[in-house]
Write a structure and sequence with these properties.
By secondary structure, the chain is of the alpha+beta class. The protein is 30% helix and 28% strand. Strands 1, 3, 4, 6, 7, 8, 9, 12 and 13 form a 9-stranded mixed β-sheet that branches. Strands 5-2-15-14-10-11 form a 6-stranded antiparallel β-sheet. Helix 1 runs antiparallel to helix 2 (104-129) and helix 6 packs antiparallel against helix 7. The protein is globular and about 60 Å long.
Length: 291
């Protein structure tokens, strides 16, 4: 069963033990279509709820998934590939959750590995069956929030960042590319990576003719005040990590303020805009103290 989600808030709009999010995708300034897709989802053992672009909710009793997928392929097959990826998340993850609810802390890696394998298999099969889908593929960066923990799965060059409440920003995921490998080895810096001639060449993605994949699977604890960013490479093409940190930590002021995701997309498209750009910002708010 799927329905619209409702948030649980106190009288001030704050969510005790809760989660806040904002998400946005933009085609950029030069591309005719948008091959990026982002997903915001709430689910439990009984139903799935699609979430809006912004919201607040309680973490008690439900799990939350936020993901970004960047499609690739000729014509509109890249757009189709990214939509397949997020559609399979919606169908498969809640089912896996029900089957493995007992002992999830030990079994989340299996659930996410199976999910990525299923999406990969679907994209390969479609690519082999239809000429217009040949070679199509997608990146996928997925975060799964439960009380106290964020589990993640990743493949490609979209990214997941963590911004702890104490300050700073760190990239959790590895770019699955030769340039990403050079960066992790310390052979090139952030600026050299951005302008490297092979920066867009992936060695791992869902589908895209890859026979074998090794998605990055992990988990991190979260505390009130922590923030997370999931974004496509179109955002990275326009913004440095320090800029992302500043944009996310900027506190909105006054009525009608724009969201953190909107600030990031606006700046990324203005600075570059050569590619589609998508961002989802997730925050674990610090509960207000009682007066």
């Amino acid at each position: 069963m799927t329905r619209a989600a409702m948030s649980t808030q106190d009288d001030d709009g704050q969510v005790a033990g809760g989660i806040c999010w904002s998400g946005l995708t933009h085609p950029g300034r030069f591309r005719p279509n948008n091959e990026d897709t982002f997903l915001a989802l709430k689910f439990d053992g009984h139903e799935v709820n699609y979430l809006g672009k912004t919201g607040r909710a309680s973490l008690e009793g439900s799990d939350f998934v936020f993901a970004v997928s960047d499609g690739m392929g000729g014509a509109h097959s890249g757009e189709f590939a990214s939509r397949i990826a997020v559609d399979r998340i919606t169908r498969l993850l809640p089912r896996s959750f029900r089957l493995k609810a007992v002992g999830l802390a030990d079994g989340f890696a299996d659930v996410l590995t199976e999910l990525f394998a299923a999406i990969h298999s679907d994209l390969l099969q479609l690519g082999a069956s239809y000429a217009e889908c040949a070679g199509m593929g997608a990146t996928l960066s997925l975060t799964w929030f439960r009380p106290g923990w964020m589990y993640f799965g990743h493949i490609g060059d979209s990214r997941i960042y963590t911004l702890p409440r104490e300050g700073g920003i760190s990239q959790l995921t590895h770019d699955h590319s030769h340039v990403g490998w050079l960066r992790r080895r310390g052979e090139i810096n952030e600026r050299e990576a951005r302008f490297h001639p092979r920066r867009n060449s992936l060695n791992q993605a869902l589908g895209a003719g890859h026979q074998f994949i090794e998605p990055q699977i992990g988990a991190v604890e979260h505390r009130p005040g922590d923030r997370f960013l999931i974004c496509s490479d179109g955002v990275i093409d326009g913004l440095w990590d320090r800029q992302l940190d500043e944009l996310i930590r900027t506190n909105p002021v006054g009525p009608g303020h724009i969201t953190a995701a909107q600030r990031i997309i606006n700046e990324a498209v203005e600075a570059s805009g050569r590619d589609n750009a998508s961002a989802v910002v997730v925050e674990l708010p610090i509960p207000r103290e009682e007066p």
